[in-house]
Specification:
Length: 370
Amino acid sequence: MRLGSALAALLLVVSAVGCSKREALVRIPSVEPTAVAAPAPSPAPAPAAPSPEKAAVMLDDLDPSLFAHVLVENGKTYVVLDANPDVDRWAQGAPLLVSDDFPVITRREIAPATLPASLVRRIGTPVRLYGSKGVVCEGKLGPLSLLGRVEPDYGVRQQWKGEDYDGTPIPPAKPEQIAEEAWGMAEGGRSLVAELGDVEGDCKDAMFARDRELPQARPFTVKDAPIALATRAAAEMRDLAGYAEIDESYQNAGIQTPGVAWEHHNGASPTVKVFSGDGATYVWLDADAGEVCSEFRGKLTALWKLEGGPAKDARFVKLYEGADDFLPSTLVHLDRDGSPSLLGYQSVLRKSASGFAIRSVAVPYFLCPC
């Protein structure tokens, strides 16, 4: 079930117990962009500002012809052309209920005359769709629409079915009411999408799309880091700015065990992965200790590129540092400058004008945090 896989992917430890009304709900957001500037080898001239039309079709300076998220929902495959659409200008008509399963999916028609011409021209473009190991299917970009996805609180679902928060029977909601409420809750989970047509292959595991005329992306090999490399990555982690901040919180929590670092609290241990391919090697580290809504939780992630020799002797060059519930499953070179893109569950860590950042089209969840 998608709800379970999404929660596992985002590592959210939450509970709906104790929420008695909608006003008490807390929105647990998807992975939010957190930019960390990548080191530049030398100063470069500032790029020319994109035209207004070009800016309108790019997600934080990312060209959808090079990379676009893919959503596989309710038996259909959609390519995301804009993950932050101008709903007020582009939408027309009332929301329609596509599915009240997990997640709840709503759709709105668009007013084509309001879209930038460059978006409209994307209709009919042949694209390849990729999973974690390579191409999984192909097709052409079809009709455009606005798609909203959300996972509401359990109590809201019960109200829709005809039972109030206190168990009192109430009239069940009609589809149009569900659509209206779900669309309103889907802020942060709305996308301008193109439905994929003329499909060849099986798209169920597709993660991203790019124009078919571009060279095929070659996903890197991913492995658990050998002990020696994992030890080096752990040492590099302790020099990160975020490490000292988390350690201070750990020391002040009053729960530390003498001689045990925060990343090993209660038996935790950092996960270190190595991505290799295209003559390059990258190291990803994820340190996660403690629990949400407890005295302490520490979370630190980092990406390095190895340079200057074999992995055991290579220099660690930091590209990204964050504190995100982001689980990369593959890495590819998609951009002309050879920068890496790490793919997770409906999320990606990519380079933009402001540095490396995580962007997500994951479903917003409305759950009580504790």
